[in-house]
Fold each of these.
Amino acid sequence: MKRTAALRAVALGAAVAMIATACASGSGGNEEAEGDGDNVTLTWWHNSNTGVGKDYYDQMADQFETDHPGVTVEVSAMAHEDMLTKLDAAFQSGDQPDVFMERGGGELKAHVEAGLVKDITDSAADTISAIGGSVAGWQVEGKTYALPFSLGVVGFWYNKAIFADAGITAAPTTMDELYAAIDTLKAAGIEPISVGAGDKWPAAHYWYYFALRQCSQEVLADATQTLDFSDDCWVRAGEDLEALVAKEPFNTGFLATVAQTGPASASGLLATGKVAMELAGHWEPGVMQGLTDDGLGLGENTGWFAFPAVQGGDGDPTAQLGGGDAWACSNDAPDVCVDFLEFMLSNEVQKGFAEYDMGLPTLPSATAFVSAPELAQLLAVRNEAPYIQLYFDTAFGESVGGAMNDAIANVFGSVGSAQDIVDATQAAAENA
Amino acid sequence: MTSTLAPPTRASRSARARTGSRVAHRTSPWVYVASVAIAAVVLAPVLYAVIGGFRSNGQLAADPTGLPNPWVFANYVGVLTSGSFWTYALNSVIIAVITTVLVVVAGVMAAYPLARYRFKGRQALFNVFVLGLLFPLTVAIIPLFLMVRDLNLTNTYWGVALPQAAFALPMTIVILRPFLMSLPNELEEAAMLDGASRIGFFWRILVPLSGPGMVTVGVLAFVGSWNGYLLPLLFLNRPELKTLPLGVADFSTQYSADTAGVLAFTSLAIIPALVFFLSMQKRIVSGLQGAVKG
Amino acid sequence: MNPGATDQATAWSVASGPRGRGASSNAWRKRLEITFFVAPALVLFALFVIVPVLQAGHYSVYKWNGLGPLDNFVGLQNYVQALGDQIFQRSVRNNLTIAFLSIAIQLPIGIMVALLLNRRFRGQTAMRVIVFVPYVLAEVVAGVVWALILQPNGPLDALLDSVGLGAIGQVWLGDPKVALWTVMGVLTWKYSGLAIVLLLAGLQGVPEELHEAAQIDGASWWQVQRKITIPLLGPTIRTWIFLSMIGSLQLFDMVWILTKGGPVNATVTMATYLINQGTDRQQYGYASAVAILLFAISFILAILYQTFFLNRDAGEDKPRRKKVAR
């Protein structure tokens, strides 16, 4: 139900629902393992509960059953928010399914500390090395606990036609250029940016990115481990945010705007041409497609540019903010569960995953199959980034992340300061 | 009057005439003006949803208040022809009925001694139930989840209905107790003189007389169950057990921005509860007219 | 009746059996009857309400993220933290505001509409159904629809524009100064139906003859209502106020769907605070402490209310009950 970062992956479902093609037959990834005579049941919860995505996962489950006689995969497809609520309750009672989604960061750490997630460092070593650096977000103290199957980055989605009409020819690459674009758009009578500050996390992404630009990689990595925010780059990030808010670039009533639900949401405003741009993740085209009658979203007017560089920051201007989803096994799941994870990250499965636009595949060999041009552009930026910072709220865990997002939203509402964000985050960290 | 064929007596005719004139006398135009105004305010949002269901998303986005042009039936047809809507509705009905029966039976039974017996600890017992009003369901959701699991009630209608009924009990008892208290003591004295036992009095006289009160608490329990979201969400995992609010939530996330579709789905989802209330409303009115005089 | 009857000597025993057969067997029988009647409700209530709530109280003195054993005992720290938190303080203020305004707004509406619908006119039955429609709607449904209606440049603004009142248009839910009042308006729409229905039920207990007698005496309709009907509604009104107050203190669903307690905490309530700061952040110990505080505040107000208002009902009851002398 109600988790700050919750709606992110709804895009998966929305994107998938739009693809009207029937499902192609999955070609088998043939594993060596055979049933040892024992009948084993794997329970699997996922959130692709519509259209081809659901069909595809059902097929993959059948495929796995065929390849592993004696194994039954019991699939539960549910809406994303429902899945999160149920997973929470299931973790508390120790009833989690054998295969489930992990988003990494502090949440994974808590699950690991409670002994709920299987260590797959050795049992899935080959797949881990095939995926490469993306796995880092799902490691705790050097051990790997989940295999990421989709990983995206956040950037500005914009309406090419509005930009062109307003006379903006090149996508902004620095904050000054972004400010110039904002002024131009306002002069043309267009609300420049929509932001779903009502859901808090879309607003928080701005501060995350300013922090990413202001703080060095060491400071960021250190903060994730120690939850120490004493470096003054964190305050500077807030000051950058205050400057942006003071420009008043956001849509009317943005403090109560939701991220993705309905035409009046931040995504809806962009999709229907009411605003020029929005800061969002790779899910945005899929969400926008669901928000227009023709199912095309912005269609060929869809543009994307990375978060601009900030002058004087210690961070790498090409570092990206992002996050993704990974498959994990319950600690008490049968061993064949790890085979299933590896199967899900096999070349075949990831290829189909990419072809159906179900997400941005993590297996390098599968990335070529992403068809949409702006997603391919985003993927290129992702692949070239020196590092991808996991969303801070996920990285720091819900309790610190929630307090941080609240304080950031207060700055959007002009009732909090740059220092307040750091203070609130630090206080929550010490209390956690 | 034993025969319907008998001509009306003078007394009855004059009584009818008097009643008729009173009705005419009382109904001033302002009653209708006020009624129309109230109905407009109350129904506007609902009509917006129902009519919105006949529009396309493009129409909704272009002009938020307009009428359908052209009328789009696809939204409603789509919902009604999907088997899942009917499954959800049936599940909601079953759970709401179980909850309502539990609440009304347990509630009226408990309210009876609390209203008409005198015993030590009566007020204390009543206060325990009243205290229940002060706990929101959210407070107890985690322990409740464990409890339902331990009782092996996860994925059953009872797993949802029992806690729902338990949380609806305080309201039920708070409403029923004064209702039972207000029934005239002469009834009890008469029954007592006829040699009825207390339990006999309860079943034969009190229960029929408290019909209107039971209908009221029954409607409240039914509506609460019908609209319940959190418990079904946590306790019902299997799609074939989902209830309408879960269906609405599913629908609105699956078709994340099909606002018109969502409006159609939600409009249809409220109809069963309205129909239920409509039928109960008649019983409230007739029940009250009969019971009070009886 | 027997003025000397003790609690034990019921009217029943006086009538149905010779007195000598002993108060004790009657007392036993009465106890059995009471147990029989109360048991189903009590078992249900204890199992699914009292036990879970006590467990919540237990969690409230631990720091617990919901995973693993309860082993980090922190005493009252969660309570201290909540009471010192400005947002929690604000949520208490908001709850009290909502509770007061709900009564101040919905009671007059409820009485007027109930009196109106108690008159006989064509369409009376239809109207009785209509006023209850918002209450029957699921919060999810009502919230979704209202959020659409109240969106910037949405239906409400368009409507105001079309009748020349565009100037009073607001960012209904997005402006921290306006949002609480907007929520208040939606709450009035959603929950007035309950007041109306309860009051209508109460009106059925007012004997028709009183009206007729008064009217024959030449009193106007309004005088009859004010002098006779409304005072007789006293117990119903006091019960409704109690229910409304408790409902306001626990308010969650509508606020959560409309604003999630925002913008910038303008509409935060204790229950949305509980979910937002507690459950959502996996601070279940803290959430439980907030829940217990919510209960404590409701409890104190309930006791105060009972002491000052509901006792009047009890006072009215007393002579009647004595007459039965159970």
Amino acid sequence: MTRSEILQKITEILSDVLDEPDLKLTEASVSDDVPDWDSINHVKLIIGLENDLKIRFEPEEITGLATVGDLIDLIQKKL
Amino acid sequence: MPASITTLPWLPAPPEDFASRCRALTAQSANRAAGIAFLAGFGLSAQQSLSLSRAIKRVQGEDLAPFARFRLGVLASATFDLVIDCIPAAAARHGVVAELLSAPYDQVMQQALDAESEINQARLDAVLVAVDHRWLKLDRALLGGSRDERVADALERLGTVVDSLRQHGDSTAILQTVAAPPQSLFGSYDRRMRGSMRAMIDDLNRGIVALAEETGSYLFDVAALAERIGTDLWFDPAHWVSYKLPFSAECFPVYAEMLGRLLGAIRGKARKCLVLDLDNTVWGGVIGDDGLEGIKLGEGSARGESFLSVQHCALALRERGIMLAVCSKNNDDVARRPFRDHTEMVLKENHIAVFQANWTDKPANLEAIARTLNIGLDALVMLDDNPAERAQIRAALPMVAVPELPNDPSQYTWYLMTAGYFEAVSYSAEDSARADSYASDAQRAEVRATSRDLGDYLASLEMMIRFQPFDGNGRGRITQLINKTNQFNLTTKRYKEADVAAMEQSDSVFTLQVRLEDKFGDLGMIGVVICRSIGDGDVWDIDTWLMSCRVLGRHVEEAMLAKVVTEAKARNIRRLIGRYIPTAKNAMVSEHYAKLGFALVEESEAGRRFELAVDDFVEPHLPFKAC
């Protein structure tokens, strides 16, 4: 998957989680920019990504993420 | 090995546009309740469950009869939000609109004890106490001293929660049994070691069952669910340490499904009657064609034992009070014969409350069964090996539960019993007598003709029909059909393989082998026609016309006639002669030619003769795809 495909996947899952069909994300997006992107919705995003992409994140990997771009970096390493 | 229970394999896969159908469900929608019931009937992932749960939440203020409402509180010792997302969708599958109220993470004791808490103030119908071994402090072995006290403490904490919810919130608790984590300290010796986690959790679970009895709480057997899935898969250490998820995310939909059943049972929505198809569901083979000696049933063969276990399962259900009925495309007397005369049959006619063996479509018969037993269609479960019949029933009567079945009959009972249609929250002597209280005399119920529109259903099967003259490849199967088909067989003429081979070469014989495929699979060769040229060579006498009963009601006959007429015209044939020669088994086709528009020209003891002028034939619109 390319970075833009991964970004699209993240956007799709998060827009499902937040019930926000028009959600727009960029690589620079951070959770504070997006209304309702709280810790529980973040868990839903991570679990959704794990299920859809058939990957698993390790506990420490998740904690250091700041931007959507960081998450894409991490996913790219796993695919 | 059966499919994993976590994917809900007894439910059909949702349509592609599932999410948009969920979004389309609003307070303004007509048939909101039917829409919810339809969408809940699929095997949903966690994400799909969330879409449906949201839709239900949007419309839960509206009239949603016949759904029952259930206001459910959740006190959880872990992050339960993702599980809760799945619950309304699963409850809807069991006739319940669940409105949920959950307390914040790990506020179990505080919420229960505080009379002013959100949960207690809400006066809920029930409160799920979703705690596990960790909250109960049984998450490590205790080798010295106070292990019995540790279990007693855990039970006392639970007892306090139950009593407080009753006292302050006027609510009944739903208690969970506790799954034991997979890791052992001593190996097999854990079983004998009273302070091992396994031994303590065993004790705890016995105590929880007793507590539920004493306090009138409901019991949700989570330990049994985890055991079925396997505790190595049930527990997910990474998700526990990272997010405090109570168990593996893969298990959320099935956990919700099990809870939904319980809510349905509490609201009296459990199903009451199991309706059985016969051929290849209750015995192997087709009784009308294979006969009493030919069907597979009983010890000694894998297939025979598989069907025997279906019968034992049905009988066990009847003994606990579930009514049994039969709905089969068959002649009545033929279908009853195994019940009367087959020595391996466990099921007898007197176990069957209503016995519908006829050639009318199954939805009409299911309506007749429900009417006769005076129960709703939503109390019926239909077990049927034929995917096209299942699809037809679901399309016509979405309130009837129709489990998917795999090809292998040894798994039928797993699918039927795993689907959880007969959940109970109590059991009494009255319940067990219920099946007997209906006169179980295998009565025939009157089927009312309905003008059900099956057009969409047939189109949805995406059928492809293929015609070929007899050839070497088909010869074996053609010969088999000619010698085996008893019911849909107009003349019951039998030919040896050499005769069939000779027809391949003959100029005066026109032959067809017919194959059918639909989206569920290839049904193989399902029809054979032999026409003999007679007179001055402008008449075809239809010597043989036979079909597999599996494809009845799909307009295959019409398609076959259309093909015969097309070929006849190409050869300057003016007339077709069709004959019906009655036998003990082929009464179902006595009107075959009349239905196809042939005129009756002669009738005697020996049979009927019909004719059709080829030019009078008008090809009807038929539900087949070009191939």
Amino acid sequence: MKKANLSSVLFDSFINLILALVLLVTLYPFLHVASVSLSDPYAVMQNRVSFYPVGFNLNSYKSVLSNPYIWISYKNTIVYTVVGTCVNMVMTTTMAYSLSKKYLFGRKFFSVFTIFTLFFNGGIIPNYILINKLGLIDSMWALILPIAIGTWNLMVMRTYFEGLPSEIEESAAIDGCNPLQVLVKIVLPVSKPILATITLFYAVWHWNMYFSPLIYLNDKEKYPIQIFLQQILITGETSFANTVVSIEDTHLLISDTVKYATIIVAILPIIIVYPFLQKYFIKGVLIGSVKG
Amino acid sequence: MKKRKVSKIMRLAAVVLIAAILPMLVSCTFNVPERQTAPGPETKQADGQKNNEQGSQKITDKIVEFDVLIGEHASYPVTRYENSQFLQKITEKTGVRLNLIAVPDAGDAYKQKLNIMLNTNDIPDIIWTSKDDALINSLAVKGVFLAYSDYLDHTPSLKKAFETIPDIERSYSASDGKVYIMPRLTTNVMSEIFMIREDILKKEGLKEPETFDEFYSLLKTLKEKYPDMIAFINRNGGEHLVNRLAYSWGSGYETGTYGFYLNRDEDKYQYGPLDKNFKLMVEWLKKLFDEGILDEEYALRTTKQWEEEMSKGNAIFTIDYIDRVKSINAAYISTGMEARVAAMNIPKGPTGKSGILAKSAVMANSGIVISSKISDPVVAMKFIDWVYSDEGRLMTSFGIDGETFVIDEDGRPMLTPHMKRQANPDGKELVKDYGWIYYIDKYEFPVGYLKDVLPGDPVPEDDRWMFSREKMEQANQVIPADPVLKFTEQQTSELRSKCTLIQDYFKQNIDKFIMGTRPISEYDQFVEEIKKLGVDDVAKIYNDAYQEYKSR
């Protein structure tokens, strides 16, 4: 065991101090949001709340939790995320696997055809008309089918599949596997890291979806949590400039305590789950980088 | 060589872009539906039914459903038809069932959704909040919406509103002269007031000032007595100050029209900062700033910081929305402070004027529009008419007669005893318990029309908000708003390009003059500079539009 000398102790405590500061800086926003949500609204107005609640009360949580729509929209978001991610994964994996095969007929054409969408798309209005004509307006499939394949994710996955040695697939084929069996029994089990990462990317994509549900859904009971959040958080932020009618009725303003309580309710599940998912995110960052 | 390659790629990109944009353009020139002007035979039938009913004025016996796009405010969640007694009662009274498409009215959400619906011609039966009147009118003349003007025989209440409020036609008719948007009519038009710490005035035995010179010496005295307080606090920057002070100084500066205003003495539009009196006002503000009376951070203070200083009792005077009287005093009361704010009469300026411009009584961008593809135009028209009728007005404003309110002996509505109010904080709520829809009323009653203090209730503390209202009204200091003008597309684009330059240049300089970083002796030079940006051209556009407005 190495004997600790003075300089290394000093160095370590210096590092620890810096890390503690960084921790404080990152933790403070969460702490502040939590304290505001538990404080008296007038104490917040007078800016007396920083690290701990002033005038502790749970009224803002009562008003947030008594709103049934926070639960309805939560449930919707979970459904869209789970179903959407499953569809994404099936479509992306199968297409990426086929495109990774050099002997695929028209491989170059299909690749270019797909990559093209990365740079150009029809725009919102043609998309809306398409969805409307398909009869998908006000249906959850309008949020899932048009983005069943994310081009960028497809490319990452294809590159990964291309990197797998073709010998194992060949030997599987010799042993009598058909291409589908090769994919399911041989390729997917050795591709778990990429599958986990892409799943996460898709799930986050669905979780954060705001604009598509706003324009494609009409029934309030189908709205995801992001629309609910946007509505609570942005309401009352009126701007003074260039409005012909400037209205500022206090009964139309939502107090910060309620806004912050909504934030806490909305992010808490993610915060709880995040530590368990974090390692996959880190893996995701490394995929595609040079290893060696 | 490389350059050529780049340009080739660019050319390719351009071609692809055009290919991408083309379908968008095509989709905008959608098939125009046939205009339905002549009411069909179903009208007579509906009239016949109406006569058969005894007393009740049901519009249709068979239930007619309409899809309605409506904004939803986060404080007033929209309830589904199945759970809303209020919507069901409307069906019972009129025979119309409203299926609401509630879109958050926060940020740009509603406007984005509406724009996409309009551009793809996927238009709901009724748009309850028009949001973009200019766009609606430009589509309306192509036949996308029904004109109220064509159905006036069926709509007595709308006809009456058109006659009594000429601004509906003057400001909202489309280029073909017909009205397609039935605007929201409001009575609560008061915007901002001069707000002062009433308790400090009383304690010091000081009188309200009559002129701006007296006002200056009042603030100076107070600043000397209370050196730690901000004598004159302001948010929303220097533009806000000149906006609210200019009328009293005998000039004008309206932010909605980029600083141009209607000079009522000469009956024409002009640019405020060019006036002599405007310069006097800037000099007065500079004096206040130099002596530390005007908040040294007046130009940058945010709403949050302003709220903080106001509610802590650190400020003496401000100009702000009247509703803030309520929230600031509530903060004082809840923290046990003696402080109170209330309205102060506005001092008279050099020309003897005093006041602050109100909001327009005919509200822009919040009217009702009916799609021309609607299944039953006459029923829809009659339904909208009902919303503006006496019965409909009461119901859309206050809920269900006999349940949430009753009409008392003076003929005014009064809350029923089980409803939530100050004396009964746990009572039933209009939105939560009855599914009343905020934004549905389009014809407001005067403030305080609904009696919410029942006989037997304890008398609440002096309502300084109501007191402030009455004070402003008695002093005639709520000045009617400038008219809402209409512009052609060409005028709009010219206004947009020139006015943003003018406004930006003004904003950059006004604070320099007040803070003294640019000497006030250069003001005349500044006037010349800003004139070069096209002030005269813009004034001409405003005056042309104003003549057009007057000729209707």
Amino acid sequence: MNVGSGITYLDIAQRRKVRNNIFRVIVIVLSVITISPIILIISKLIIEGIGQINLDFFTQLAPDTFQAMSAKMSGEKIPGGIVNGITGTLFLVLLASLMAIPVGIMAGIYLYENGNKRYAGFIRNLTDILQGVPSIVLGIIGYIWIVKNVTNGFSALAGSVALAIMMLPLIVRSTEETMKMVPESIKEAGAALGVPYHRIILKVMIPSSFSGLMTGILLAVSRIIGETAPLLLTTLGSPVINFEIDKPTSAVPLLIWNFYNDPNMIDLIWSSSLFLMGFVLILNLISKRIIAHREKN
Amino acid sequence: MIENNIGIKDPVLSIANLSIAYDEKKFAVKDVNAFIERNAITAIMGPSGCGKSTLLRAINRMHELYPNIITKGEILLNGQSIYEMQTIQLRRKVGMVFQRPNPFPTLSIYDNVIAGYKLNGIRLNKQQRDDIVEKSLLDVTLWDEVKDSLFKKGTFLSGGQQQRLCIARTLAFNPEVILLDEPTSALDPIATAKVEELLVDLKKKYTIVLVTHNMSQAARISDYSMFMYLGELLEHGKTEAMFTNPKNPKTEEYLTGKFG
Amino acid sequence: MKSEKITKYVLFAVSLIILLIFAGMVFSLAGGAMPVFKEYGLKFIFSADWNPTTGRESYGALPFIAGTLITSILALLICFPLSFSTSLFIAEYYHKTRVASVLGTMVDLLAGIPSIVYGLWGFYALRPVIIALGLSDQGFGIFTSSIILAIMIIPYATSLSNEIITMVPNELKEAAYSLGATRFEVIFNVIIPNARSGIVASYILALGRALGETMAVTMLIGNANIIPDGLFSTGNTMASLIANQFGEADGLKLSALIAIGLLLFLITAVVNAIGKYIIKKLS
């Protein structure tokens, strides 16, 4: 069968097949390239960082530049750890969670209860936009609102406000989505027993969607835990352990930034990054587990 | 004016001029008047969308969960207006069982039975709790099946068992009236038979109002029947009389399967 | 009934907090930016001169707006073939297989890496490669930043695209296969046309991410306050400028930085709003 100048249907079919196969190979190759950075990054962190991780790493304060320099000059390992960063990060996450979780869950329930109303739609849109605000801008907000006007100086509070605003939209939307998955019949069962509205929320809705809420919170925490930019503008950093909300506070990412900027301490960046990354990954894995577990039931 | 020409001696509920609308134009229930006999089973029948579920829900004001609902008329429980009672009190006296079994997924079987107390924050001591759980589960003939797994989640039970658990949850409050909204429509025939048997047994102690799609179920277990059509109560009488000799031609058409 | 009312009011009041935060942010940023806009007017946006030296102070946002847009769009171009192939791998070629779920998990892991770690890796692992290839002397600049940004936004681009691609009805694909179409033809004639607006939306949202990225870019772009003049030129983005200079800023310079923050906020808000709007229209 001739289509035109000497090309047969068979030729065309052959070409289509070849094109199909080439495309498949391209897709596979590009996919492998896509995931190679994660492998490269994790292996780099492990290879360079694992050696520095020991007990001191978790119990000692970060060294200052002179300690690091003298250790380097005498060829020893740089002393100290990142305990002020670890406690600082935990403190900031705790403060941010205390602000963002109650507000986020209640706002999420509000959106769920008022699904189609215009005001709720408006709040939902604002939440979406809030979720896209760059973290550095939230740093500016923490600076203007808290550093300038409340604590009159860099403070844990300022940083945690910035982080809380980052967490908030994630928790609001995950709350709304999980609440939607609680069957209406369960709420009715509560109402039929004469249970008042606020108790239905507290005793029926929240327990029934607990795993979903937890996942949302964990993902929100894992998103803020590695944040550096907003903290540069708000909590500044601290060489000591601090648990006062109106004082500057260190955090693991801030320490990494300090180490990176100090030629004497450059060796410490990998272990700290490995620790930070491990922390984030564990949070992610836990929330994945919760999701998988829920999907099974 | 509620007519009582069907020999109701001791009405628990009297429904007078009850109209319910979801919006100004759309009436779900139109000017219903009826007495409900104590310690009897009253079945409400009618085609889908006839307002039977709305009427049932109005009896313990569950219909108020819908937004913008308009209610006119009156329902008296033992002579007292339910609209002057607190919903919490009312719903303790008038319990409700739903179409699909809905045990609380996060609670054990034990806690599901006393969920009404737990969720309302009513404190009971261990002895009281144990007594209520055992008695309620015995009443729904579930005790022997679950007494060894009381602390398992209620959602592990079969559909029929779950529905009996939901009835037990209602009984735990010791209500006067139990409302059931097509309680067997999600169950298999064997589980249905068990629930029906149970309802006949329960009417000795409780007044039962049952919405059903299933005419033969109404015929089997109810003492009184109501037939609703397009929001109106077209016929209300002794079940036997209504099934053998319906007065309204629409009722007859429905009972003979001409529509539904 | 009463407790129900109270609860509803409390929930409503909490929802107002979101409104307040949002309004407060706009108000504070606009307030902080006021001095610089009073001084320069809209010229601030279009001036390429940034000079904080006292006495010769001059502030213009153009180099940073340009730096932000160029790095982000370039990142999107680099990201697209990679992440779209990955989406096809996960959502079409190997849909619901074990290898696809492993790949999906690894892509998700990319989202879990903190920005500063990307920066370190870019600095110590990627930059030497750029230098070795002779692309640039120091290895800093637009290109290096864009590669890192591209990697960072891959998980955001894929997660939504995957969903959109799996949502293309099977009947349509089967109809094409039954007519003898190859997979390549199904992808280009059925899947892409049907999923187009969703895919576009997911890349717009990924762009929104790239625009605001700070630390990694700060560490790699070279921090030169000039309008980039080539692929390997150094430059600065709005976010990295703020991170670098905010600490020691006061007076007009602080106001200029806040103004840049405001512009960044507006640009990302518009980009995200467009993305979300497309998604909303889909569902």
